[in-house]
Structure formats: C-alpha cells, structure tokens
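Checklist before submission:
- one chain only
- standard amino acids only
- sequence pasted in full

Submission:
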Amino acid sequence: MSTQSFSPDDYELAENRWFEDFEVGMRFPLPSRTMTDALFAAFQLASGDNHPIHYDIEYCRRRGHDGLLAHGFQVVSQTAPGAGMFPHYVGESMIGFLEQSSRFLKPVYAGDTLYSMLEVVELVEQRSTGVLKMQSTVHNQRGELVMDGAQSFLIAKRPA
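Returned file contents:
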C-alpha cells in the first residue's frame, strides 16, 4: 500500500506548455472516428439542422450521393482540440480560443472513418501572450482530404 499523499491538483496527463514551448510543425493527432447513422442522428438532434441531405437517403440519391451526408459542423467537430492531448498541454496557459475557419472539400458519408490532425503553422508573439495558429485537417479512410481549416488560440507566456 502506498504511503504517498494524493492531491487532484497534482494529477496531470502532460506537463503544461507555455507559448514559448511551442514550435511551428508540432502536430497534435486526434482519435479517428467512424461516422455512423447514430452519430448523424445525434448531431441532427443537437444542432437542430433538419435538412433532408442529412436524413433522407432517397433525397440524397436523387442528387447523386451514395448515402447520407454528414453535417459540415459535424465534420468540423472532429477537429475539436479537446478530443486530443492539446488541452492537457495548455491547461494553465490557455487564455482563449480565438477563431476557427474551415473548407469542406469532399462529402463525408455514414460509414466513413475520419482522421483529424492539428498542426502549429504560425506563432505570433505578443508582450505577455502569443497567438498560436494551427492548421486543421480531416482525411477519410481513402486518404482524401475532406476538410481543412485553421484555429487560433491565445496562449500565455511563461510567468516571470
């Protein structure tokens, strides 16, 4: 039996990083996920988006699609930094999520497996903080880029 004391304050998955600890090219992979009919239905319920392209297979087929299409924001949500390790590195230094943009390049269907990545592409130093800009990408199981975009975060510099 361990005699060490335990404190939740000392329980960390990763050592905190400050703005100065990041470098262009650092990558943060996110877990892969297969898009299922159940995920489509859950996202439709949560978003309130009831366009038939997301739930009416015959509507989709009449427009040349093989299956139901994922909601765009459902694809974007696969790049949520909280799904990976990034937030564990910036637990103390994260000030805020500043912006997000995305482009949808190919359709995503139920049954597709998505592989998302965040990569640091720019570091903009400020006096006591910095803006960390990341490229976000989502590929499908065929290696096709289905979405790309950008995310920016305000990160504190290391305290003096």
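Reviewer check: The beta strands are 27-29, 33-34, 94-104, 113-125, 129-139, 145-156.
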